[in-house]
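Q: My labmate handed me this sequence with no annotations at all. I'd like to see what the chain might look like in three dimensions before we decide whether it's worth expressing. Could you predict it?
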Amino acid sequence: MSIKGGKSKVGITKKVLVVDDEKGIRFLLSEILLSQGFEVSLAKDGQESLAKLEEDHFDLVVTDINMPRLDGVSMIKNMKKSGRSEKVIIMTGNPSDHRLSDPEIPHGITQLLKPFGIENFMNVVLSAIGKGVEIVGSKQVQAVTG
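A: Here is what I predict for the chain of 146 residues:
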């Protein structure tokens, strides 16, 4: 499933793959991303996401860590082995999960600690895709880097 949002608030339309076994989370994150102008595809687990990645290129993959069939860490390892270049945000409720320190996980993976708010989610997404903007309420401002 691939859905296009309205007018992009981030410039050129970016494609995001959202991977989570919880339908409600997939729907919520896709609605947030669509409202910000992203094109969104959905997958219910790591196995389905790999099939989607074979079909298309994405600018960003947002994935849960715990899923049936193929978890987020195994999915990322498979992406690395096949030479994928998508940026990845991995959502976890446990930042000390030993799987996150696996040396086979490429550097540059962004962790998003659950639970998180919509503004925090969008700040992490925009930072991951390198837009350099930060959402503050309903406004966008330049992020301070340093």
